[in-house]
Specification:
271 residues, alpha/beta, seven-stranded mixed sheet, three-stranded mixed sheet, 32% helix, 18% strand
């Protein structure tokens, strides 16, 4: 998938995880649960993913030293030369996607966050067995007509000089979206033509809209982690707002669902 800094595994999916520098527990838990290479698809042998955490620099020498050590030990961190702040999330994601395009040949790339659970075996199984959209794919939970926030006190504030217009084009929530390789390359090609603005989800959608790519809506990417039962994990791809302690619970559900639930009920489409 990747060469250079990371092991090469052609065509297997790449997972990019936006992570805050101080979220050591989040990353460690992800490595022990859904990013663990021992968690294989029950129906696809030999197919696995590579997970890379996207992190920027901080003003703390101590924290930067810890991150350097973690990077050397784990070999799964892409450190960017930008200040790691919420307002710089666009830079973080663009850096990760450009790196993925230049260093990897993954058929699909999933971008997610470090407070998400990713149902890796189910996603792999779907992409290789049932995915009806193999090219021009930009899929996740779509926001169809989100207003541009003009309040300077909001963390989502975008000035008119950064983005003109009162609403964004349809874009996929950044907690989880899948890009096919051709779409990743289109993003890289067009991303330099639009001024960065501090809403990474909307920025990605705006760039891809310019490239002629329209989002595919999927209810299989959800924004809450409460009340899910074991058999739900034969449907869900990504769950947002998951605390580290719940990652283990969801990983257990996802593994047991293949044995305990009816596979005939498994969805074979993005919806």
């Amino acid at each position: 998938m990747c060469n250079g800094e990371f092991e090469r595994q052609m065509s297997c999916p790449l997972i990019l995880v936006a992570s805050a520098p101080e979220n050591f527990e989040h990353r460690d838990t992800i490595r022990k649960t859904w990013a663990n290479p021992k968690n294989k698809s029950p129906t696809i042998s030999g197919l696995k993913t590579k997970t890379i955490f996207l992190i920027g620099r901080t003003s703390s020498r101590f924290l930067n030293a810890l991150l350097k050590t973690e990077k050397e030990i784990s070999n799964d961190i892409l450190l960017g030369d930008y200040r790691d702040t919420y307002r710089n999330l666009t830079q973080k994601v663009v850096h990760g996607l450009r790196w993925a395009s230049s260093h990897c040949q993954s058929s699909y790339t999933l971008k997610t966050d470090d407070d998400c659970f990713v149902n890796v075996p189910l996603l792999l199984y779907f992409l290789w067995k049932h995915n009806p959209i193999e090219s021009n794919l930009y899929a996740g939970h779509v926001r169809w007509s989100s207003p541009v926030i003009r309040n300077p006190n909001s963390r989502w504030y975008v000035s008119e000089s950064d983005f003109q217009g009162s609403r964004f084009v349809p874009y996929v929530n950044g907690a989880g979206y899948v890009l096919s390789l051709d779409v990743l390359r289109k993003f890289v090609k067009f991303s330099g033509l639009i001024k960065f603005f501090p809403n990474e989800d909307a920025f990605v959608g705006t760039v891809l809209n310019m490239a002629g790519v329209r989002p595919t809506y999927s209810a299989r990417f959800v924004a809450h982690s409460a009340a899910w039962q074991m058999c739900n994990f034969l449907y869900l791809f990504v769950v947002h707002h998951v605390k580290p302690t719940r990652q283990f619970e969801f990983q257990k559900f996802a593994s047991e669902a293949w044995e305990e639930c009816s596979l005939s009920d498994m969805a074979h489409d993005w919806v």
